[in-house]
Design brief:
The complex is a heterodimer. By secondary structure, chain A is α/β, with parallel strands linked by helices. Chain A folds into 2 domains: 253 residues, Thiamin diphosphate (ThDP)-binding fold, Pyr/PP domains (Rossmann fold), CATH 3.40.50; 34 residues, no CATH class. In chain A, the strands form 2 sheets. In chain A, strands 2-1-3-4-8-7-10-9 form an 8-stranded mixed β-sheet, sandwiched between helices. In chain A, strand 1, helix 3 and strand 2 form a beta-alpha-beta unit. In chain A, helix 5 crosses helix 6. The longest helix of chain A is centred in the last third of the chain and has 15 residues. The two termini of chain A are 18 Å apart. Chain B has a 6-stranded mixed β-sheet, with helices on both faces. A 5-stranded mixed β-sheet of chain B has the order 13-14-16-15-22, sandwiched between helices. Chain B is built from 20 helices and 24 strands. Chain B is α/β, with parallel strands linked by helices. The longest helix of chain B is centred in the C-terminal third of the chain and has 21 residues. Classes of the chains: A alpha/beta, B alpha/beta.
Chain lengths: 319, 612
């Protein structure tokens, strides 16, 4: 069986060829940024008044402002109302399965260092079904930005208790009021080893954009909890942090040392209404950088060899 | 041990040398005795001597201690299985002796450690030739007495080298290579132990043996490895540069090897927090533009099935290796079974077509891994690479592949395109093509990949028409693949009484059973199926030539008595001749078992015909 035929040899990429000509793209520095019109796709399926609209609008704004181009970004999500996000963005995107957006995005981030991966999701996706992945993506410090639109309820499945639903919240699965202690996403993130932990609200566009920019610029796993009201099932959830509804949008004090993990943890204790801004930020080598380091070390040892020659060395040892 | 010619009394008072065409040696001890190492040396020696070799091992699922065996069959002709009965048993302990004496053929040699094996039944002393060696004591004497039980294995290798007149220089070179590390003394000690065994004066041995020279003229040197190694190297040759996994026996070796090797090629393998994360990460990397690999064994495969469904729906190329073990649940983690066939073909929710390929030999693990990658790419589909514990751990020698010709580059093509619809329903070949993210699309319309039913660009749809069309698209591409697959061929005559159908690692013992049947004048043939899903064309034509069809597989017979693959073939061909020969004792097929079961099966069928 030594001369096995190898059927199904590799094919070149085939793409539809119509009258459109393929332009030679300008160098990135000379490009105009994408416009909102160019970057928006399907009309969102969210309910009127949903906080997620604001997040989408500011993602467009971020892309416009920072002149991000299609060749450099991807948008990834899991399952939930907020996770429909990639359909609304005219860019390479992936809508994956419930709770697993982070490992999917990690696969993109680790294998394609040329792309910035933005991951969007909700509280159920992030902290319940995907809780394990949240912890491990944070501790490994995989380079990507994760924005969780936290509405304290399961919206897409129509009003069940979520891991961040407050005590006493009445849902279809807790008609007498939730009795389970809710997760504190910020403390969870800090404990897990996230290197960027921020908090914002869909009701404060300027602050939301600031947080998104800071998260994008962070070299590592950047996590933002963005309060995003579910007007259908959990209306008024965040009124106490919404000034136009009589609440107080209070920033993390300027005196807070964002590299102080314990101080950040303390600041994150009370989340209703809680504070807004960057709670914690530190620089720790990313998984991406560590892997590139391992690759560089190994490749130095086989410098100048073709892949088949590297493999040949292993086979020579097995003779 | 098929003796061919006695050469009579050898010179120098040594026992006479008998030429043999093959030898089956079973080494039984505990898992920490390094008996796998002895087997490994013998296998590699065979590889370097252009002989065929196949091994079989059992290891306990505990970390340290527990009985373990390693059986090696070396032959000058074709070696199809690890052998039903051993010519030689090397027993380190009383329990090894007691448990494995029955694996020895009548008149076979049991070489035992007389420091540990002290009780014998008189009838056994008559049936088998007993050769005592104080292996523990003599090893300590040979290497200076500090190593406790260390070195017994290499000492024993020396004994075997003497008995089988093995190429001492080649063996010493292998031993030296194996033990040359930081401390040169270790290799020196190993050689001392080897010499101790080789020069030990064996009592009670009436003759020694010499393996005939191989008839093979392959012209290329042989490489020696196990199935898991062959898969990992095959994937590297195929151009895979990213993978993710979670530890589980017997898959872990593949991930360890890829973790170690991929960085040399600019790639990486990630150990994840769980099985779901690992398939998800691999899918993410596949979407990133280059087919990635994940893998596991049964329990982990169950966890991956939701994500596998996504890969079917989004039509994402992906390799999922399933190294089967005894199931269900934790089952028999270090034993062989083929009972993941159903989950590999059908596991998951909804109609989620995927490709399933099952290699039969270690060599095929290497080539089929490349083929799996190419099928995944060409048909934009997940491929389950279905192997098993037996093939994963067994060592074979095969002609070194022409790596220069085989290795391929499958880096993503990121050059801009005019426009692109991944799920184009009008594509002439009907097959989905994805663009890697980062590709500029001039039309400004970007594709999305999704688990929702979708339109041609990947955007969600609730349209009944699109769901029908897309479901058909996902199904039809596999039908197209089926039409392109090589047709299976019959081993033996194309017409006869009995056709044995095998898949996966059952191929070797089934072929050996056919050889034995035919040598007795029975009209038995075999067909081996490598592509489990979709099935290739032409099996029905082959089935027509036989009165009885038995599917030989390591699954339970199931509620309806056909076994897992048998049931698939019955559903596919509606042929009542198809019957199952199944078992789940956690061990590979013995040729004799197959022969007995075929005879019993024909007897039952004839009886049924008489009664009808």
């Amino acid at each position: 069986m030594s001369n096995l035929e190898m059927p199904f040899a590799v094919l070149p990429r085939t793409t539809a060829t119509t009258g459109l000509t393929i332009p030679i793209p300008l160098p990135e520095a000379e490009r105009k940024g994408l416009t909102k019109k160019e970057i928006s796709a399907d009309h969102p399926t969210w309910c009127p008044g949903c906080g997620d609209f604001s997040v989408l609008a500011l993602y467009f704004k971020l892309i416009e402002k920072r002149k991000l181009i299609h060749e450099k970004i991807t948008t990834v999500a899991g399952i939930g109302c907020s996770s429909r996000f990639p359909y609304f963005v005219q860019a390479h995107g992936a809508h994956y399965i419930h709770g697993r957006a982070l490992p999917f995005a990690s696969g993109v981030s680790l294998s394609r260092p040329d792309l910035h991966v933005f991951v969007f999701g909700g509280d159920g996706d992030a902290f319940s079904i995907g809780g394990n992945h949240f912890t491990h993506t944070a501790r490994k410090n995989i380079k990507l930005s994760y924005l969780v639109m936290d509405n304290n309820v399961y919206g897409l499945t129509k009003n069940q208790t979520s891991p961040t639903s407050p005590l006493g919240y009445k849902s279809k699965t807790d008609i007498w009021g939730s009795k389970d202690r809710p997760i504190n996403p910020l403390k969870q993130a800090i404990t897990a080893g996230a290197t960027f932990v921020g908090r914002t609200s869909a009701t404060n566009p300027n602050h939301l954009l600031q947080m998104m920019e800071a998260a994008m610029d962070h070299d590592g796993f950047s996590f933002i909890q963005c309060l995003s009201e579910c007007v259908e099932f959990h209306p008024g959830a965040f009124d106490n942090s919404t000034p136009r509804k009589g609440g107080k949008f209070e920033l993390v004090p300027a005196s807070h040392d964002v590299t102080d993990e314990y101080a950040a943890y303390k600041l994150a204790e009370e989340l209703s209404p809680g504070l807004f801004g960057i709670f914690y930020q530190t620089n720790r080598p990313t998984k991406n950088a560590n892997e590139q380091g391992i690759i560089a070390d190994h490749q130095a040892k086989v410098a100048g060899l073709e892949p088949w020659q590297i493999l040949q060395k292993n086979f020579d040892r097995m003779k | 041990m098929s003796a061919v010619a006695d050469s009579g009394q050898a010179a120098g008072g040594q026992p006479p040398v008998t030429k043999v065409s093959e030898a089956v040696i079973r080494i039984a001890g505990n898992s920490q005795d390094g008996i796998q190492a002895i087997g490994g040396f013998l296998a590699r020696l065979a590889g370097r001597s252009e002989q065929e070799v196949m091994t079989f091992m059992t290891i306990p699922s505990t970390i340290s201690g527990g009985p373990s065996i390693f059986q090696v069959r070396i032959g000058s002709g074709e070696v199809l299985s690890a052998g039903d009965e051993a010519d030689m048993l090397l027993a380190f302990y009383q329990h090894s002796y007691d448990s494995h004496l029955s694996s020895l053929k009548l008149g076979g040699i049991v070489l035992y450690d007389s420091d540990h094996v002290t009780e014998f039944k008189p009838e056994n002393l008559e049936k088998f030739r007993h050769v005592p060696v104080p292996i523990s004591g003599a090893t300590v004497e040979a290497i200076g007495g500090t190593g406790r039980d260390k070195g017994k294995n290499v000492f024993s290798l020396g004994l075997l080298a003497r008995i089988y007149d093995l190429d001492v220089e080649k063996l010493k070179k292998l031993v030296t290579e194996r033990f040359t590390g930081k401390d040169p003394k270790i290799a020196e000690t190993a050689i001392t132990a080897f010499n101790g065994g080789y020069s030990f004066q064996l009592q009670h041995l009436l003759k020694s043996y010499q393996l005939e020279h191989s008839q093979k003229k392959i012209g290329r040197p042989q490489v020696v490895m196990n199935g898991n190694e062959a898969i990992a190297y095959g994937l590297i040759a195929a151009g895979v540069r990213f993978g993710a996994g979670y530890p589980i026996t017997p898959w872990s070796d593949i991930m360890e090897l890829l973790r170690r090797e991929l960085p040399k090629y600019g790639g990486s393998f990630q150990q994840c927090e769980d099985e779901i994360a690992s398939i998800s990460m691999a899918i993410g990397a596949s979407w990133g533009g280059r087919v990635a690999v994940t893998g596991s064994s049964g329990p982990g495969i169950s966890l991956k099935t939701e994500a596998l469904g996504w890969a079917s729906m989004a039509e994402m190329p992906l390799i999922v290796v399933d190294v089967q073990r005894g199931g269900p649940s934790t089952g028999m983690p270090t034993n062989i079974e083929q009972s993941d066939l159903n989950i590999a073909c059908f596991g998951g929710h909804g109609d989620s077509p995927r490709v399933v390929i099952a290699p039969a030999t270690v060599e095929e693990c290497f080539y089929a891994a490349i083929e799996a990658v190419n099928i995944a790419r060409k048909f934009s589909t997940p491929v389950v690479f279905l192997t098993d514990q037996g093939i994963a751990t067994r060592i074979e020698a095969f002609p070194e592949p022409d790596l220069k010709a085989i290795c391929q580059d499958i880096s993503p093509d990121l050059s801009p395109v005019a426009e692109h619809k991944p799920y184009d329903l009008t594509a002439p070949d009907g097959i989905t093509r994805h663009l890697a993210p980062g590709t500029l699309v001039a039309s400004g319309k970007y594709p999305v990949v999704t688990g929702l039913e979708h339109d041609e660009l990947g955007h969600p749809t609730g349209s009944p028409k699109l769901h029908l069309q897309m479901t058909a698209k996902r199904r039809n591409k596999l039908k197209k693949l089926a039409a392109e697959l090589p047709r299976p061929t019959v081993y033996g005559a194309s017409e006869g009484q009995v056709l044995l159908v095998s898949w996966g690692s059952a191929q070797g013992p089934v072929r050996e059973a056919v050889d034995r049947f035919r040598s007795l004048g029975d009209a038995v043939s075999a067909v081996h199926v490598k592509y489990i899903n979709p099935l290739p064309e032409g099996l029905d034509e082959i089935f027509k030539g036989f009165r009885h069809i038995f599917v030989v597989e390591l699954t339970d017979e199931g509620l309806y008595g056909y076994g897992q693959f048998g049931a698939v073939l019955r559903a596919r061909y509606c042929d009542p001749k198809i019957k199952g020969i199944t078992k789940v004792d956690g061990l590979t097929w013995k040729v004799k078992e197959i022969i007995d079961r075929v005879r019993a099966g024909i007897g039952a069928a004839n009886q049924a015909a008489l009664n009808a």
